[in-house]
Structures are given as structure tokens and as C-alpha cells.
Write a structure and sequence with these properties.
single chain; alpha+beta; seven-stranded mixed beta sheet; three-stranded antiparallel beta sheet; 9 helices; about 45% helix
Length: about 300
């Protein structure tokens, strides 16, 4: 038997499993005719995702989005195709990728699925007053945010050879160029060799296989490291991911024997300053003449 994941507490695991059992029973996913339609939940959800994707989505994207085994996904798609719900095709830009799109019959079934789901949920909420519904909605939003954060992986990569590292840095530079009054010159980004091997480290955050954040660490002096380029994709913000990245970089610094980490930030990035202060960083005098820096911070590692 596998042990509990690191950081998991037995009471937390029990509470989440109890909620899952209750919720799945209340919304009818145990029935092989989900919402009274002639298909189980797995097929119904796949058809919904295909319809939501518009004119065509690759099987690879669906596999990553839903976390499905390739063989299982293929069998479900073929079943839907045989029922006239979807059409298979080839990606216009990459003939190696197979795509799937809903037929008119598939779209009609998804519309009916949505109607029935609305009726079901409306019935679940009927016994609650307005304030109770609002509290439930807020609690579910919090649960979704935390579960999304829990599902994100923060992974060290080789910045010299990993395309996702460059993609994240390019997006980071574009964000800063839009926010800084003076713009941002991409030549200010750290070079891959500065954050690789003994010199430093580069981390990429992944959600459902997609890079959604990054951060870098470089050694600047004996026992001292500098954290650079902590960035989160707009679609993954307000999850707490920047703090996760910062924690990973601090852990990496400690593992490398560094006792102090420093960083700087632009004056307009007020949310970044607030996060650093909340994370135990202390503002210090300027330790560099970095052109985009308006505030400098330091944290001593335990």
C-alpha cells in the first residue's frame, strides 16, 4: 500500500473523501445514465468538452485536459463517433494530430445535458436561502482555487534546452513591457547559463501539461542567491501559485547551501512587494544598480 502523499494529513484526506462520496451521490454520477441521458458520466463529460472547444480540438489536448489514458479516450471517442455525436479529422497545421468536433446531433445533446444539469442544480439549491447560497458559492470557488493549486506541479528544468522555459520568459517580458511606464527590454532577462547547473536553477509550473509560471535562482556570492523572474500566467493568477514558486526557489537555495536570498522589484509591482513582505522578506538598501529595480529585499534561510 502506498503511503499518504507528503504533507497530507489523515483528517484532511478523510474529510475530502467524505465530501466526494456525498457530492457524487447527490449529482447522480453513480448512475450509468447520467442526467437520465443514454450515456455514463465519462462519455457525457467528454462530449461536453468537445462541444465547448468549438470547431475542433486535438485528442492530445483532450487527453491532457481531462487526464485520460490514451486508449480509454480513443475508445470513448470512437463510441461517440459511432453514435453520430462527433466527427474525427486531422489538425490543419499538423497532420500527425487527430482532431474531433461535435456534429449537430452532438451539440443538441450537450444543450439538453446543460438544461438537465441546470434543473438538477437548481433543485439542490432550492432548500437554501440567498445568504446560504452565496456562502456555498464562495466556498466552492475557494475549493476550486485550492484544488487547482494542488494539481499544479512546480518542476526544475534545464533553461538551456527546455522550450517551456523560454516561452515563460518571453511571456514574462511581454507582461512587464505592458506594465512598466518605460517598457521592458528583454535583454535584461537572465541568460540560461546563469540559472543552470552549479550557477543556479530554473523552475516551470505546469497545469494540465501547460506551462503557467516560472521562477529562477542564481548564485551571486558565496552563500547568497538571487531570485529572478517569478511569473504566473494571467489564467492561473490568484491561486497562490507565485507563493508556491517562491517557496520552491527558497527550498532550492537552501539545498544548495545558500543562507541568504535576495530579489528586487519594480515600483509599479505593488502586489509583488506585498507577497514578498508576507513571505518574510525585509526591504534593504539597494544591492545592485538594476535599471528596473525600485525596491530590494532579502530573506535569511533557516
Amino acid at each position: 500500500m502506498e503511503p499518504l502523499a507528503e504533507g497530507a494529513v489523515t483528517e484532511d484526506v478523510t474529510a475530502l473523501r467524505r465530501f466526494n462520496r456525498y457530492f457524487t451521490r447527490r449529482i447522480g454520477v453513480l448512475d450509468d445514465r447520467y442526467l437520465g441521458q443514454d450515456r455514463p458520466l465519462g462519455e457525457a463529460r467528454l462530449l461536453f468538452e468537445i462541444a465547448e472547444s468549438g470547431s475542433g480540438v486535438s485528442l492530445r489536448d483532450l487527453r491532457g485536459r481531462l487526464g485520460l489514458d490514451a486508449g480509454y479516450l480513443s475508445r470513448m471517442v470512437k463510441a461517440l463517433e459511432a453514435q453520430g455525436m462527433v466527427r474525427l479529422g486531422v489538425h490543419p497545421d499538423d497532420s500527425r494530430l487527430r482532431t474531433v468536433e461535435p456534429t449537430p446531433a452532438g451539440r443538441a445533446e450537450v444543450a439538453e445535458q446543460n438544461r438537465r444539469a441546470d434543473v438538477l442544480v437548481s433543485g439542490l439549491l432550492q432548500g437554501l436561502g440567498p445568504d446560504q447560497r452565496r456562502r456555498l458559492t464562495d466556498a466552492m470557488a475557494t475549493a476550486q482555487r485550492l484544488l487547482r493549486l494542488a494539481a499544479v506541479t512546480v518542476t526544475p528544468v534545464d533553461a538551456r534546452t527546455t522550450p517551456d522555459a523560454r516561452a515563460c520568459l518571453d511571456a514574462y517580458a511581454a507582461d512587464l513591457d505592458a506594465r512598466f511606464p518605460e517598457g521592458f527590454d528583454p535583454s535584461d532577462l537572465v541568460g540560461p547559463e546563469e540559472v543552470s547547473g552549479d550557477a543556479g536553477a530554473f523552475f516551470v509550473a505546469y497545469e494540465e501539461g501547460r506551462p503557467v509560471g516560472c521562477g529562477a535562482l542564481r548564485r551571486t556570492a558565496p552563500g547568497v542567491g538571487e531570485i529572478k523572474h517569478v511569473w504566473v500566467h494571467p489564467g492561473a493568477r490568484r491561486l497562490g501559485l507565485a507563493r508556491r514558486l517562491l517557496d520552491a526557489l527558497e527550498d532550492e537555495a537552501a539545498a544548495r547551501g545558500l543562507t541568504v536570498v535576495r530579489l528586487d522589484t519594480h515600483a509599479v509591482l505593488t502586489e509583488a512587494r506585498a507577497m514578498y513582505e508576507a513571505s518574510g522578506y525585509t526591504e534593504i538598501p539597494a544591492y545592485s544598480d538594476h535599471v528596473y529595480a525600485g525596491h530590494w529585499f532579502e530573506k535569511r534561510l533557516g
